[in-house]
């Protein structure tokens, strides 16, 4: 009788251990579906090279493409949804002499160009992430108009709600929310703990 109880307890321990070993992979799978992360090595490298927050890069990629290489109806390409004309400009400014538009399908080039553009916008807008993201989505010309109008009224862009276009305002809020999620969920993978 005691052997039977001992065997039953041992069996239950084995089942419990098996269940515990499945919990972490299942948790990881759910996390990957809800908040995917790919190409973290490229993101970390570009973040370091261009002094841009890795969680911001990941959040832009997530918001733009959910980490899927695609072309939008407007013609934006790749993970960071870069317009071909913008990519041509980035190539000229960054020394990409052998760049072709097809290169935007390559994660390394797409993330490098998208991060270059984020750095450029951060510099142009004096580190203002709201204006940077609004320009990334809606274009520099529109943001410059909004900024001039706000300045004429003695206002500044401090929060996403100051963005006058709903689509761009929603985009900025989605990226900022995703950035917070990437910071808390993938700090190690993005090199934020270093």
TrEMBL record:
The Transglycosylase SLT domain, residue ranges: 42-155
Transmembrane residue ranges: none
Any matching Pfam family: SLT
InterPro entries: Lysozyme-like_dom_sf (IPR023346), Transglycosylase_SLT_dom_1 (IPR008258)
Protein name: Lytic transglycosylase domain-containing protein
């Amino acid at each position: 009788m005691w052997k039977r109880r001992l065997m039953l307890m041992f069996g239950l321990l084995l089942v419990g251990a098996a269940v515990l070993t499945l919990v972490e992979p299942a948790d990881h799978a759910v996390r990957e579906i809800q908040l995917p992360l790919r190409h973290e090595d490229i993101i970390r490298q570009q973040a370091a090279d261009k002094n841009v927050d890795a969680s911001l890069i990941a959040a832009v990629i997530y918001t733009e493409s959910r980490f899927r290489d695609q072309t939008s109806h407007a013609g934006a390409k790749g993970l960071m949804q870069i317009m071909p004309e913008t990519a041509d400009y980035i190539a000229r400014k960054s020394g990409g002499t052998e760049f072709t538009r097809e290169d935007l399908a390559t994660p390394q080039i797409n993330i490098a160009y998208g991060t270059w553009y984020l750095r450029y916008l951060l510099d142009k807008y004096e580190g203002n992430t709201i204006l940077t993201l609004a320009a990334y989505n809606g274009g520099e010309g529109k943001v410059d108009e909004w900024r001039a109008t706000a300045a004429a009224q003695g206002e500044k862009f401090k929060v996403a709600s100051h963005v006058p276009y709903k689509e761009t305002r929603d985009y900025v809020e989605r990226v900022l929310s995703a950035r917070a999620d990437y910071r808390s969920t993938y700090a190690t993978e993005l090199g934020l703990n270093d």
